[in-house]
Amino acid sequence: MHSPRAQKVRVIRLSEAPPRATGGRAQGPEGPSTLDAASQPWPQPIGSRLPGQAAGGAHEAQASAPRATLRAVPPAEAPGEPAVRRLPRGAVKAWPVKVSHDANRHARRWAWLAAKQLLSAGAYLPWAATEAGRSLWRHTRVAGLSLDDHRRPLAWLTQAALTWALLLGVGLSWLAGSALGLVATSLAVLAWPMLVFMQVRQRAQHLSWARRRMGFEGRCAQVYGQVWPLMLGAWTLLWGGAAAAHWGSPQAWCLWGAVAAGAAMVAPLGGWAWLNWRQRQLRLGPWSVWWAGPREGLWSLFWRAVVWSALVAAFMGGVTALLWAALRLCHVPVGAWGHGLWVALPAGLVGVAARAYVQARLQNFVWGKTGNKLVRLQSRLNVAAYVRQQCRHALLLVLTCGLYWPWAQAATHRARLQAITVWSRVDADELRARWPSPGVAP
């Protein structure tokens, strides 16, 4: 016989659907709301799968498996991670990211920083870049507490100097000769993972929430174990194209085309390995972070980006051809600069549209699958609106000769950050209490 106190505990299977607008919601001044898991689902926390479920098919297994009644056992904390008190009865909190900066004020700050650069003959550039970025992060809040970027100007200068030295070296090598250019480009491909690792590590380790630093555990040597398919594909395309250009036969170019198609097929696999490693090296202070992005999702994103780029290129090509025909019929003279702009502007707009499309979908795919047993991120960036915004920014930058940059930077930061919502099983004060502060400088 069961004890009179024995109760059946219902386990709510968490889904990817956004919460339904029902009762029992308390809205705070900064937007966080407390939800009851018994009536409103929230995104499934990473790392809280049932025993026997695979990482890639957890969502599909939940959709097809019968809803069994299990005893709700709190998941054990990883070794070294502090235990926290979760919200009672499975309640969760939604913390939308709030960005409160003023674009005009940000532009005035940029103007003042530009004046300092002119007075210092460009020597103030590292301080200007870090200060401008920090002003945006300081006006970004989660659960009413601001984020901050503590990256030092010297670190920014080191990374920028290495990047520009690498690009300049490759450019000068190609001017000296094709053979030297091939060797220099191959070495640049070898050094590229190190530069990407430096950028990711600096951003992760110098970003803080409520004066609590994030973290990154990865090492530079581990990067090469994850991106070697991408490096191999780049080397194959580079030297294969050089060989085909040297022989100049149709058969050689056909062979190089087949190799390029094979490299394109391998690219999503290398990209998924890099993202999987990068996201799992992130830390929310003492807590590790998991990522549950499936390989199929990145494959779908890759081919969607290819089709999208082809469609945009075809549309812009048709518009350019029609305008060119109209100019010829009207006998409008077009000089050498006009021909260059006639080709560069449509090509640049195609590149901006393709880049914005990939950025929006990649943000939703990567950060929508990132979290742990305490918090979970959800990204709902509108792809079409973001592409239109970036194309508009590109046109305004061209028309204003780059003076529109501060407004474009502020609008892009707002659009990308405010599309993210943080779901938490614990209170913000509990997170702060269990998250040691290293005493970051203001």
Topology:
Layout: E1 26-27, E2 33-35, H1 58-64, E3 92-96, E4 98-99, H2 103-119, H3 125-138, E5 140-142, E6 145-149, H4 153-176, H5 178-205, E7 207-209, E8 212-213, E9 215-216, H6 220-247, H7 250-281, E10 282-284, E11 287-288, E12 290-291, H8 295-329, H9 336-367, E13 370-371, E14 375-379, H10 383-399, H11 405-417, E15 420-424, H12 428-434
Antiparallel strand pairs: 1-2, 2-3, 3-15, 4-5, 5-6, 6-7, 7-8, 9-10, 10-11, 12-13, 14-15
Helix pairs in contact: 2-3, 2-11, 3-4, 4-5, 5-6, 6-7, 7-8, 8-9, 9-10, 10-11
Strand content: 5-15%
Strands side by side in the biggest sheet: 1-2-3-15-14
- Which outline best applies? globular
- Unreliable segments (pLDDT under 50, ≥5 consecutive)? 1-32, 34-43, 45-76
What oligomeric state do the depicted chains represent?
single chain
- Nearest-integer average pLDDT: 80
> Rg to the nearest angstrom?
26 Å
- What's the total number of strands? 15
Alpha-beta content class: alpha+beta
**Percentage of residues assigned to helices:** 55-70%
Helix-strand pattern: EEHEEHHEEHHEEEHHEEEHHEEHHEH
N/C terminus separation = 62 Å
| Biggest sheet features | 5 strands, antiparallel
Count the DSSP helices.
12
